[in-house]
Amino acid sequence: MGKTVIWTHQADAELNKAFLDLLKQSQSIEITTRIITEVYESTLILVTNPEIYKLDTLKDNNKWNIRSYEKHTYRISYQIEKEAIYIIRLRYARKEPLEY
Fold first, then answer.
1. What is the pTM (predicted TM-score) of this model?
2. 17 compared with 99, residue with greater pLDDT
3. What is the four-CA torsion angle of 19, 24, 30, 34, rounded to 10 degrees?
4. Which domains does the chain have, with CATH numbers?
5. Residues near 47 by Cβ (< 8 Å), separated by ≥ 6?
6. Residue-wise pLDDT tens digits, 78-93
7. How confident is the model over 2-51, as pLDDT tens digits?
8. What is the number of alpha carbons within 13 Å of residue 17 lying toward its C-beta?
9. Which backbone phi and psi does 51 adopt, to 5 degrees?
10. Were 87 and a residue from 7, 28, 58, 72 both cysteine, which residue would form a disulfide, CB within 3.0 to 4.6 Å?
11. What is the spatial distance between Cα 6 and Cα 83, in angstroms, rounded to a whole number?
């Protein structure tokens, strides 16, 4: 059976901020809800195939366990652990890349 996906407090706060920013920009609750839902649900594939995406190139001293991907111009970074997959960061991908 697959691992559990857990959103960290930081990533959850960033997802909420993305929702508010997108709502302000689009002024449409339907569009905003659809996009944020798709971003959130895109993490479900990690349950069965956590190594589907490439290593996160913006992570300093990245071992094998931190990876990232993009969905709807949002960059999602996650950490693979023995017991679970932790979503550690969500960032608008068109901003200047920041190492962490």
1. 0.88
2. 17
3. -30
4. 4-92 (3.30.2310.20)
5. 2, 3, 4, 5, 85
6. 999 999 999 999 999 8
7. 789 999 999 999 999 999 999 999 999 999 999 999 999 999 999 999 99
8. 11
9. -100, 25
10. 7
11. 10
